[in-house]
Design brief:
alpha+beta; UDP-n-acetylglucosamine1-carboxyvinyl-transferase, Chain; 2 domains; four-stranded mixed β-sheet; binds uridine-diphosphate-N-acetylglucosamine; binds phosphoenolpyruvate
Length: about 425
């Protein structure tokens, strides 16, 4: 088992370049299945989930090469239309293969996907949408078999603006006969990036980033080249690291517009934020102040993926803050670990009441999921003493060598291997 040791209390200073977004790269890699031929995707982050996605693509028969942050996927050699169960279980994003394989080959067999344990995370909306597009779906022995002659466009309304469902259906509809509309679609920037990739492949998608997306089906797509957008959740995490350590850091390669409400809440907390095109400077000198309410919501609302890391900042902000999680039922697992570090947090169902304390103290804590892990890293950077964090496999799903980046900003963090 590996753990991360972090010495708290060192202000972070310097510059960091934000890597490409995991949540854009994963569906885009899956979308490369839609066209026979070699697509080139740049600024693909070097993360565990990306390696799992590339193994899945290879298991289907695609040729994948990743050098640095450039991935090339040649989908002309795909010969298998089933994703092995052990790979499906490794991450939620494995479900992104369902729409593209079905649309191109007329058949696909997958099992229920795994992923972070932050709630029940069913896939009913994905299946309902594919059925509306004419797929025959049979669920047996934990597997889901989908078949179709050719998908047909239809009007779909999502009961919840689900990010993954919007992406899966948008990919599937590109090769359907006729026009599909997706109402109550999710509007996250990663969906817009996927639509840009698909349109470069020859798809006819309009309205991505808005409430209703329209996809006019085409006969065939062609491979293309694309650069992934910067990761707004990683950017937000480093902004919080700068803020909690009373540091002064500069983030390069960010799209500030993707972080609107996060920047507003940081300013409310007394953090100085300066934006200049694709650069954000964060400086934290005065007192950190409690924030009246943070309520997670689909984009452009406050991102659920930054709820836990932001809560770490609030643990040492003066006054009482309220944090409500509306997207996932079990996304407060960081609370018990933050309490071990001295945080004063009470939880009532999906709302946390955070009473700021004067300081956190180091402890041994466990990351239960990716962003809970990020929250513990943020807290450890400010805590008195040396914090030890286990569960690093979760953190490595979303952050490239996090300790190296932190150390380049003046932190002291290192991995310890133990039996
Ligand atoms: C790889 C990726 O992009 N992951 C992101 C994506 O996850 P993901 O796409 O899984 O999240 P969704 O937007 O689909 O989930 C939103 C809500 O809808 C529910 N739901 C979803 C699908 C379904 O078929 N039925 C159903 O009930 C979920 O349980 C959840 O309560 O969006 C989440 C919400 O912004 C982020 O936290 C994740 O980081
Ligand atoms: C929950 C997340 O990822 P996934 O949907 O891949 O589990 C996340 O990125 O915070």
């Amino acid at each position: 088992m590996e753990r991360l040791a972090i010495v708290g209390g060192r202000p972070l200073t310097g510059s960091v370049r934000v890597h490409g977004a995991k949540n854009a790269a994963l569906p885009i890699l899956a979308a490369s299945v839609l066209a026979a031929g070699k697509s080139t995707i740049t600024d693909v982050p070097d993360l565990k989930d990306i390696r799992v996605m590339s193994q899945i693509l290879e298991s289907l028969g695609a040729k994948v090469s990743i050098e640095g942050r450039t991935a090339q996927v040649d989908s002309s050699t795909i010969h298998t239309f089933e994703v092995p169960e052990e790979m499906m279980r490794q991450m939620r994003s494995s479900i992104f293969l369902m729409g593209p394989i079905l649309a191109r080959f007329g058949t696909v067999r997958v099992s229920k996907p795994g992923g972070c344990t932050i709630g029940s995370r069913p896939i009913d909306l994905h299946l309902k949408g594919l059925k509306a597009l004419g797929a025959n779906i049979e669920e047996k022995g934990g597997y889901i078999q989908c078949t179709t002659e050719r998908l047909r466009g239809d009007h779909i309304y999502l009961d919840i603006p689900s990010v993954g469902t919007t992406e899966n259906l948008m990919m599937a509809a590109t090769l359907a006969e006729g026009t599909t509309t997706i109402g109550n679609a999710a509007r996250e920037p990663e969906i817009v990036d996927l639509a840009r990739f698909l349109n470069k492949m020859g798809a006819k998608i309009s309205g991505a980033g808005e409430d209703t997306i329209t996809i006019q089906g085409v006969e065939e797509l062609r491979p293309t080249r694309h650069t992934i957008i910067p990761d707004r959740i990683v950017a937000g995490t480093f902004l919080l690291a700068g803020a909690i350590t009373r540091g002064d850091i500069r983030l390069i390669n960010v799209i500030p517009g993707h972080l609107g409400v996060v920047l507003t809440k940081l300013r409310e907390a007394g953090v100085e934020i300066k934006v200049d095109r694709d650069i954000i400077n964060v400086r934290s000198r005065g007192e950190l102040r409690a924030v009246d309410r943070i309520q997670t919501a689909p984009y452009p609302g406050f991102p659920t993926d930054l709820q836990a890391p932001f809560m770490s900042l609030l643990t040492i902000a003066k006054g009482s803050s309220i944090v409500s999680e509306t997207i996932f039922e079990e996304r407060f697992k960081h609370v018990s670990e933050l309490r071990r570090m001295g945080a004063n947090i009470k939880v009532d169902l999906r709302t946390a009441f955070v009473q700021g304390v004067s300081e956190l103290t180091a402890a041994s804590v466990e990351a239960s999921d990716l962003r809970a892990g990020a929250a513990l890293v943020i807290a450890a950077l400010a805590a008195k003493g040396v914090t030890h964090i286990t569960g690093l496999q979760h953190i490595d799903r979303g952050y490239e060598r996090i300790e190296d980046v932190l150390n380049s900003l003046g932190a002291r963090a290192w991995r310890i291997k133990s039996g």
